[in-house]
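User: Before I run my own analysis I want an independent prediction to cross-check against. Here's the chain; please return only the structure tokens and, at the end, one sentence I can use as a sanity check.
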Amino acid sequence: MPAAENPTVAMVEAAYRHHKLDWRYINCEVQPALLGSAVRGAKAMGWAGFNCSIPHKVAVIDHLDGLGESAGIMEAVNTVVRRGDKYIGENTDGKGFVQALREAIDPNGKSVVLFGAGGAARAVSVELALAGARHILVVNRSNERGRVLADLLNERTPVSAVQVVWDSTFSVPKDADMVINATSIGLYPDIDGRLDLDVASLSPDMVVADAIPNPPRTRLIRDAEARGCRALDGLGMLVNQGVIGIKYWTGVDVDASVMRRTLEDIFFS
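Assistant: Structure tokens:
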């Protein structure tokens, strides 16, 4: 079912209340033509920072004073942080995913199968590379987009990346440590969407993660659990994005469980 309220706003506000932080997290709609004015307004009002989503993740860069390491590599920003008198662009999409992933597996030295080559895939793969992943197999229907992502990873990070055109049912290589869905397949309202994946190729020693938060229990998650895999839903990524963003803005390490419970109340009630 769709969330009745903005889940990111709800979980961040819940963390502020829990830690008695006199802060607010508000949702603002900004038209693309007014993005520059919005950023200048945030600076003028002394905001500690803000998040931005599609379609602003790339365009916002022209209005900032600098970029963090991973944001610079992937050339996309979802979090802006005031540091001194400068506004710096960061990207917590991949950072949140990797932080959630560490609950099950250390990416260092691991082999990854990644479905997708869009913005989420780019964020996740760059952070996995910076976390020490050994090899990333980019599985994508578009040959061009898959090649662009693989080339970016090979040229700008230490990882070895290879692309595969996803034009038939995909079988996961036996040596894969992690299988990650960074596509929109299974995202609400297409809740019955299923990756064109040979489920029998999943083995219990693999960690399977889905970046989709709504619904949390996608078909991939259920298929992976049925095969005995350790499965991680997209709520972990969403929660940890929030944890990292709040740390950037306030300096406080907030209780992730408070934010997780808030999301579960939204998605499972």
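Sanity check: The mean pLDDT is 95.
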